Amino acid sequence: MTLAGLFDVTLFLEAAITLLVIMDPPGTVPVFLSLVGRKPPAARARAARQAVLVSLLVISLFALLGEVVLAYLGIGIPALQGAGGLLLLLVALDLLTGRSSAEPEAAEDVNVALVPLGTPLLAGPGAIAATIVFVRQAGGDPGGYLALGSAIVAAHLVLWVCMRYSGVVIRLVRESGITLLAKIAGLLLAAIAVDLIADAVRGFVEGA
After folding, report:
1. What Cα–Cα distance (Å) separates residue 57 from each residue in 62, 65, 119?
2. Spans of all domains in the chain
3. What is the pTM of this model?
């Protein structure tokens, strides 16, 4: 069996890049440090691990059950692509305008690794919508599902590395570097969002 039959490389790259752009690992560093920066290194490492595991669980659940929800609600792929594109565009605008820099305040009696780090900061609506779209794109192909699962795991590994070693990252790129990365990520995400909306319009026209 060929590599294409075992593993959809194109889908893996598309899904991994899209999730990384949406989740914005470098951009999570300032928020992460603002919430757990005063805690000891061991506590920061534990918070990074818990946040990534929560996000991975949420994204995986939507990847597995998203199809069932769509079928139950009678939602077609063009509508999902359009909604996902609009959500991604909102996230892109936040990154480009800097409105996403508003950092959530941490409550003492809430594990910030679960809320707001794990969700909705990491496993937000944009990442969930993109995951469901890629599940539909896999089209029942085992190689596609394997590629998507690998992309989800790879994106969360990058997230974990950035948060686990956030002190090093912030010293290397500085605050201005993270701001620049957020702007570049916003441009890429806006392009992905426009492409999703265009696909949705095309799907509605063809299905009319």
Report:
1. 9, 12, 10
2. 3-207
3. 0.75
